[in-house]
Amino acid sequence: MKILSGIQPSGRLHIGNYFGAMKQHLQLQDANDGFYFIAEYHALTSNPEPDTLRDYVFAVAADYLALGLNPEKTVFWRQTDVPEVVELMWLLSCVTPVGLMERCVSYKDKLAKGLSANHGLFTYPLLQAADILAFESDLVPVGADQKQHIEVTCDIAQKFNHLYGETFKIPKEYIIDSVAVVPGIDGQKMSKSYDNTIEIFEPEKKMRKKVMKIKTDSAGVDEPKNPDTCSVFALLKLFASEDELKEWDKKYREGGMGYGDAKKRLAELMLEFFKPYREKREELDKDPAYIEKVLKGGAERARAAAGETLARARHNIGIR
Ligand code: TYM
User: Fold this and answer.
1) Catalytic-role residue among 110, 159, 237, 251
2) Which residue from 9, 52, 130, 237 has the least number of CB within 10 angstroms?
3) How much distance in Å is there from the Cα of 94 to the middle of ligand 1?
4) From the record, which residues define motif 'HIGH' region (predicted)?
């Protein structure tokens, strides 16, 4: 199967990115054909500083490689190195009703907050559809926030196929319920744009500090607590063994445990979990030439794949 997914270089990758998406990307790469890319064009919709954008692209690449992305097997590239996708987006845009874009949440939310959206944000889901369709993806592993974008992709692909004949494969989302929305330190969805993230490769001290800041209710040590509504417990679920989790569940419900204890243990577990990858991450930091080589090699393979789909779409729509 072809597995495709993208991550925006709009900040350092965090635990929500890891459990909601990257973990699945890495697990699926061995038995399938993985296509993973750094979505720079999507990140431009928030107008980052040029140097910041370059730094984040590098960091996303280094994070992925440190965590185990295998560039020998998996195709890994920068979105901006594959212009075929942008051309495909134009062909798709000509069969896309404006109303479909208007219903998409990231654009709607921005307007609801009284902010003015740029046109890139408006067409953001269309570029994502081009990403997905260009590579004939079977499965798109993402967090819950991307569900609508995949539905839109299927709508547009079906419309195009209906108008111009079988051109695109219809993809499926792959969302794991238990990790679909990882909470951040303020209890909202962990997100670079809410400034509530815990980064995967956060320096140790900072990681502990952030964990201690996770928002909880004000139940005292002796009082019983509800694990089902607690962000600390939700994060413990990602890192603790089943037996340990059962113990925490009991301690929460019985009382006699302070949130501080649960947080300290959570920080330990997080640091332990990512520790085996830290050394590799530090090595990669010193080897930008290797990272560049991987991304360039990936782009060549990605261009070849996207080129075939684009040629078919051009032909079917009536271009020479
Ligand atoms: P982005 O960069 O916002 O996030 C990357 C991936 O991480 C997931 N994610 C989360 N999952 C669970 N809990 C969270 N708190 C959390 N925060 C982020 C996201 O769901 C995503 O899977 N539009 C995409 C990038 C993209 C793309 C694509 C994805 C561009 N083209 C084609 C798939 C296919 C985005 O903004 O992801």
Assistant:
1) 110
2) 52
3) 26
4) 9-17
Ligand 1 pocket residue status of 3, Cβ below 6 Å: no
* Interface predicted TM-score of the whole assembly (ipTM), two decimals: 0.99
Q: Is residue 42 in a domain? A: yes
Identify whether residues 120 and 162 lie together within a single domain. Answer: yes
Q: Give residue 147 CA to ligand 1 midpoint distance, Å.
A: 10
Dist. CA 18–CA 25, nearest whole Å: 9
Contact yes or no for 181/20 (Cβ under 8 A)? yes
Q: How far is CA 36 from the centre of its chain?
A: 10
Report the pLDDT value the prediction gives residue 116, as an integer from 0 to 100: 87
- Strands (E) across the chain are located at 2-7, 33-38, 75-78, 139-141, 172-174
184 is in an annotated binding site: no
Same domain as 240, residue 162: no
The CATH code of the domain that includes 111 is 3.40.50.620
**How many distinct helices (H) and strands (E) make up the chain?**
14, 5
Based on the fold, state whether residues 235 and 263 are members of the same structural domain. Answer: yes
Band (120; pLDDT cuts 50, 70, 90): very high
Closest C-alpha residue for ligand 1 atom 33: 5
The verdict on 292 and 276 lying in the same domain is no
Strand partners, 78: 38
Active site residue 110: yes
Q: Is residue 187 part of a domain?
A: no
Q: Which domain holds residue 162?
A: 2-182+288-317
Residues 237, 154 within the same domain = no
Residue 135 has pLDDT above 90, yes or no: yes
